[in-house]
Amino acid sequence: MKSLFVNPACGVAGDMFTAALIDLGIDLIDFETQLNSLKFSKEELDWSISKVQKAGIDSLKFTVKQDQDLKHEQSHVHGHSHSHEHSHEHEHDHNHVHGRHLPEIIEIIKNSSINVYAKDLAITAFTHLAESEAKVHNKTINTVHFHEVGGIDAIADICGSCIAFSMLEIDEVICKSVALGGGHVHCDHGTMQVPVPAVCNLLVNVPCHTGPIEKELTTPTGAALLKTFVTKYSNKIEGNLITTGYGAGTRDLADRANVLTLQLFEATKSSMANHETISVISCTIDDQTPEQISYALDLLLKKELAIDAYITSASMKKSRMGHYITVLARPSLEKSCVDFILRQTSTFGVRVSQEKRTILERDFIMVSTAFGEVKIKRGLLNGEVLKAAPEYEDCKTIAEENKISIQDVFNAAQKAYNEKS
Q1: Would you state the pLDDT for residue 139?
Q2: Alpha-carbon Rg for the chain in angstroms
Q3: pLDDT reading at 95 higher than 90
């Protein structure tokens, strides 16, 4: 189980998150291919990754260059931000006049070649932003206009973070208290105090602290990514440290490294079983065939939106027989699952709750049988193997190839495992 530990001691912005995730170690060619698949009608996506130093710490800087027509409206020159001073920490979130609405941004993301998991994360992050902005301006999420956070750089920051996050196969995200900063910023709506209203809405019930300097440290894009990624907030994590990534902010600070620090941990045997929070989505259906429901749930799992999905027989009102649908999902993909169920089934509504679950550590080993090799899935608790079972797909494939019953393959694999262990 992989855990990501987020330390936003100097706040968080979208470009810092992207850079820090990349610095943890990902396939840059794959990342580049996916990010460059974002297409914009009047602008070209031009970005770069560079090595910089912040208070002596080697860090990565993720920079998105702006369209030439917008450059004179920027308060800084992209690509050289580490050598300039600015009026506050993340000016790029507030000085763009170009913007978009949520449906347009979602369309850009959906039309890209970004992987499905990253697409859903990015859409979730922008939906969080839209909900926050809509609350500020008393509009709906589809009509509120993204000014600063609808620009090409904000879209690239959020999508870049989601692509890198999906490539790291992270199981949970733990975050320390979020540094907000202070002072004020100049944006499209005038001068605003820090934290700006959108950040305040996004970080409700999240441990935060003002300072440590009178500049904006956490931006709306950074706050939206925290709301999308983070599983829980805590100052403590246990496990084996795998690697650390540093994402550089814009300003050079005199007394501290202006970086977002991310650390990737692997859970130790003593910390297993694993505890996590999941979203449980459910509904009842009595006017759709089992075949149609099965198709929808199979598609939901194939798209990797859900951890699991199953059907239970139910007796509904007027004594009609129906089906009780249960879907388990990561909290970050909850909205995508709900949208999918409402579109693909006949239900008029769903119930959503957050539940804690405990799962055993899992690993796989191969055993040899007279029919071929079969994968065995094992469940472990504190290093002790509690259960083991042959993988169905392996047994099915071997049974079909050898024209024998699947039970024969299963028994042979189980026997081979027992002898091996």
Answers
A1: 80
A2: 24
A3: no
- Spatial CA neighbour of 227 closest among 134, 127, 338: 127
Q: What is the pLDDT of residues 245-295, one digit of tens each?
A: 999 998 888 788 999 999 999 876 555 557 788 999 999 999 999 999 999
**Single-letter amino acid, residue 212:** P
Parallel, antiparallel, or unpaired: how do β-strands 351-359 and 361-369 relate? unpaired
Please state, in angstroms and rounded to a whole number, the distance separating the CA atoms of residues 389 and 392: 9
Q: How far from chain centre, in Å, is Cα 179?
A: 21
d(CA 212, CA 176): 15
Residues 38 and 43: their CA atoms lie apart, in Å, by: 11
| 119 closest CA partner among 335, 328, 274, 420 | 335
DSSP labels, 188-215: TTEEEESSPHHHHHHTTTS-EEEBSSSS
In the structure encoding, which two tokens stand for residue 17, read together? 């998150």
Q: What is the mean pLDDT of residues 147-164?
A: 86
In angstroms, the CA 222 to CA 343 distance is 30
Tokens 């702006």 locate to: 66
Mean pLDDT on 85-103: 52
The whole-angstrom separation of Cα 179 and Cα 265 is 22
Three-point CA angle 97, 99, 105, nearest 5°: 160
Dihedral through CA 148, CA 12, CA 329, CA 335, nearest 10?
A: -20
The yes-or-no verdict on residue 28 having pLDDT over 50 is: yes
pLDDT recorded at residue 151: 81
pTM: 0.67
List Cβ neighbours of 339 (8 Å cut-off, separation of 6 or more). none
What's residue 98's pLDDT?
53
Q: What is the pLDDT of residue 150?
A: 64
pLDDT band at residue 87 under the 50/70/90 scheme: very low
